[in-house]
Amino acid sequence: MDDFNKNLGKKLKKLRKKKNYSLSKLEELTTVSKSMLGQIERGKSSPTVKTLWKISKGLNVSFSTFVNESNNNVSVVSNKNTHPIIEKKSKYKVYPLFPYENKKKFEIYFIEIAANYSHQAEAHYDETEEYLLVNKGRISIKIANKKYDLKKDEAINFSGDRPHTYENNSNKKASAYIIIYYA
């Protein structure tokens, strides 16, 4: 596996050990199997977006904790140079652009959704706010059984502490930026 998976695995193992959790305890907190957690820790498996969300919630850390953080005063990033976290054979990709930092309380992602695909997102922490800004195509969001249709250059803000679904019902790839703010 590549360096990204190895670094992610090292961070997971370090966080688990810091909290004094066994793989069994982490399995209980995340509903991710011990064998999968072990494979991720060894850098032998690349977790899906959904799996990484479950792990971050179980460890009570942000999703972007597993991405290398920059300590520079100026950061220039591009999704072309960022390793995406992939779901369902590249149908949903998350590019962590700016990871969470305690002093900033937010993280920024770029997402790509394949044509005719929907992604069920896990609920985030209580009082989390999510902002989605459509960059290309059309994206529908289902929140509490209500659907919001957005097109390029439109944005939405909502409470991220409940499950929500991103949908691309078109025949072309859609993309957006997501900002997640932790109160």
From the N-terminal CA to the C-terminal CA, the straight-line distance is 36 Å
* Individual helix count: 4
Helix content: 10-25%
Low-confidence stretches: none
The CATH homologous superfamily of the largest domain is termed Jelly Rolls
Secondary structural class:
alpha+beta
Mean pLDDT: 87
Largest sheet: 6 strands, antiparallel
- Biggest β-sheet: strands ordered side by side in the sheet: 1-2-3-10-5-8
Question: Outline, from the CA principal axes?
Answer: globular
CATH architectural group of the largest domain: Sandwich
Characterization of the model:
The chain has 183 residues and is α+β, with helices and mostly antiparallel strands. The chain has two domains: 3-47, 434 Repressor (Amino-terminal Domain), CATH 1.10.260; 79-182, Jelly Rolls (Sandwich), CATH 2.60.120. The chain has four helices and ten strands. A six-stranded antiparallel beta sheet has the order 1-2-3-10-5-8, with no helix packed on it. The protein has a four-stranded antiparallel beta sheet with strand order 4-9-6-7, with no helix packed on it. A hairpin with a 4-residue loop joins strand 1 (85-87) and strand 2 (92-98). The relative contact order is 0.15. The mean pLDDT is 87.
